[in-house]
Amino acid sequence: MSDNTLNLTLRVWRQPNRNAPGKIEEYKISGISTDSSFLEMLDELNEQLTVEGKEPVAFDHDCREGICGMCGIVINGVPHGRGNSLDTPTTTCQLHMRKFKNGDVITIEPWRAAPFPVIKDLAVDRSAFDKIIQAGGYVSVPTGAAPEAHANAVSKLKADRAFDAATCIGCGACVAACPNSSGMLFTAAKITHLGLLPQGQPERALRVKRMIGKHDELGFGGCQNLGECAAVCPKSIPLDTISQLNRDLIASLFKGDGKH
Amino acid sequence: MAVTGLVLIAFLLMHMIGNLKMFIPVYVNEVGETVNEFNHYAEFLKQDLLYPILPKGVFIWIFRLVILACLVLHIYSAVTLWLRANRATASKYTVKKTIKQSFSSKWMRWGGILLALLLTWHLIQFTIVPTLAGDHDPRSLVIAAFQQPLFVAIYVAMMLVVYLHLAHGFGSAFMTLGANTSPKAERVLRVIAHWVAALILVGFVAMPFSVLAGVIN
Ligand code: HEM
Ligand code: SF4
Ligand code: FES
What we know:
- The complex is a heterodimer of chains A (260) and B (217).
- By secondary structure, chain A is an alpha+beta fold.
- Chain A has two domains: 5-109, Roll (Ubiquitin-like (UB roll)); 127-254, Alpha-helical ferredoxin (Fumarate Reductase Iron-sulfur Protein, Chain B, domain 2, Orthogonal Bundle).
- Chain A has helices at residues 38-51, 127-136, 156-166, 173-177, 184-195, 204-217, 228-232, 240-252; strands spanning 5-14, 23-33, 74-75, 78-79, 105-109, 118-120, 123-124.
- Chain A has a five-stranded mixed beta sheet.
- In chain A, a hairpin with a 2-residue loop joins strand 3 and strand 4 (78-79).
- In chain A, helix 5 (184-195) packs across helix 8 (240-252).
- The radius of gyration of chain A is 21 Å and the shape is elongated.
- Chain B is mostly helical and 217 residues long.
- Chain B has a single domain (2-91, 100-212), classed as 3 helical TM bundles of succinate and fumarate reductases (Up-down Bundle), CATH 1.20.1300.
- Chain B is built from eight helices and two strands; from the N terminus they run αββααααααα.
- In chain B, a hairpin with a 5-residue loop joins strand 1 and strand 2.
- In chain B, helix 1 (2-20) packs antiparallel against helix 7 and helix 5 crosses helix 7 (149-176).
- The longest helix of chain B has 30 residues, at 59-88.
- The radius of gyration of chain B is 20 Å and the shape is elongated.
- Classes of the chains: A alpha+beta (260), B mainly alpha (217).
């Protein structure tokens, strides 16, 4: 354990509710251990605010081990706060204070995108993602005896790609990073995950039409292939999943599986 | 967006090859005729291409209509995307960094508008005014124009904007059409886009500079 501590200036977005206007407020905080996580630092800020009789800062979190997708804050202009470092992106809960220097000024904001309205302070409503999944991000499994496994061989390449795509935790950083607030990377991860496996085939053409239709209807922007999303994704979902989605979409236009 | 963009690029490549014929000087062939390759090409485009399948002079109008339709559809999709993005990003960050997107990709929209303006100028200068004036010697027209540094400057500015537009656009179009199959494919597409954009830039500006320098006369 190192005994290094940090004194920081935090510029935090405060917004009482969805409809009230918000603004940046500045707080000083001292004695933060470099071994603590970013969220632990915010916990300390909230203790300090509570002692001072002020409203603590609302932020989302759950597992704090990078697997649930609940946490998500824009830190110094970068979702999850990786900044310009070449480190593999992490979730906010896996960002540690050793990445910061004593005296740093840190700007902390919520995801900003019209389909992700602020609930309070740094917490946003990401149920738009659930609606995209409901529109087609599932497979229908008929009841009955389990099918014989060898009848459905999956190539190792496809299995790996599907698995990698399935690791998306739905955090929404991709949307937060995108200059168009597009939700394509999230949608493409699910399309790739299900579209490469045998179970996903019967609904493949319909799925992509329905999910993209819902994505657009919810007010997410369009994709310009800029790559900002993949650069912040804590699960390293690659940009090429979006091309996979586009391939499926183009193929679906030639299939008579109804309209979205 | 992607399909219309690629049709426009195909057009640019063809246009570029046509322009490069300016480098072939007017010469007298073995049977004593004066040959003006550039004017001949222009004449061929306007009158003889696909003749006698189509009547003389019809192809050029079909061609113009297709290019114009692509341009209109291209701009229509660009505006639609822009409006969607504006609605989706209505609330702004106080601090926002971009960490991956290229310089050229940041210029797609304003650069596109600039391109539309310069393109309009270009058409007025080399197509609309000469046609109205009944000019039948495009070679002399081009030489007269590019002996003036101002017109060379405007033309080069237009081609630089095209360069920026295509350095992102060419790769992006293929990604939109599904060609980005792996991180390596993405890198290759982005590099190819820069080369195609550079080829178009060099292929177009070589001729006006040569006129200005007196190499073509
Ligand atoms: C010589 C004419 C032009 C060519 C060859 C061309 C080519 C392209 C290509 C290939 C793309 C990429 C498409 C994709 O990503 O799917 C693109 C994108 C774009 N173009 Fe053009 N374009 C031209 C003129 C214009 C004009 C006049 C405008 C202006 C309003 C414009 C606005 C845009 C915008 C905003 C995009 C970004 C969309 C995106 O990245 O998906 N373009 N262009
Ligand atoms: S694609 Fe990555 S950034 Fe987007 S929601 Fe999934 S895990 Fe988060
Ligand atoms: S709190 Fe679960 S991923 Fe960060």
